[in-house]
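Dear Dr. L.,

I hope this message finds you well. Following up on our conversation about the binding site, I have prepared a predicted three-dimensional model of the protein together with zinc ion. For your records, I am including the exact sequence and ligand specification that went into the calculation, followed by the structure tokens. Please feel free to forward this to your student if that is useful.
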Amino acid sequence: MLEIRDGAISLGECACCQQARFFLTRYVFEENAPVAAYIATFTNGHHEKGVHIALTTGSWDEGASDLHRQTFLLDVWMDQDEHHMRFADWDGDVWDQIDFPGVKHGREAALKSDHLDQLYLFKDAILKEDGLIRRFFDQGYVELRKSDKPKTR
Ligand SMILES: [Zn+2]
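The resulting structure of the complex is given below.
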């Protein structure tokens, strides 16, 4: 059973409309052990653009090298009340400002990955458990509440 835990939330501005652009950092745990992390970004009012996710998987053991981690890009959007997902390439400007540990994999590498099944499980867990992403897809925008602040553990 995968569990999503909250990390930092940072806010920026959409270049075209100055609406709030969200960057969520989240951690994925399985039986209390970290198995993945992701950054998700979306912009209020840009429901049609969906949510961009950079998902990092691999070894989270102490001392594990960054080379044992891989980052994949997932684009998720809604159509006819259904989620759609595609793996994306690193050619847009969405992730320009962010450093990722480990190896960056594009669409082809994702589809050929030995861990493709696991990537889909992560995607399912994110869409089911990430409250802010769910609210974005429900309403097309998100207003932060007190409960959205990450809990200290
Ligand atoms: Zn905009």
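In brief: The chain has a mean pLDDT of 91.

With kind regards,
A. P.
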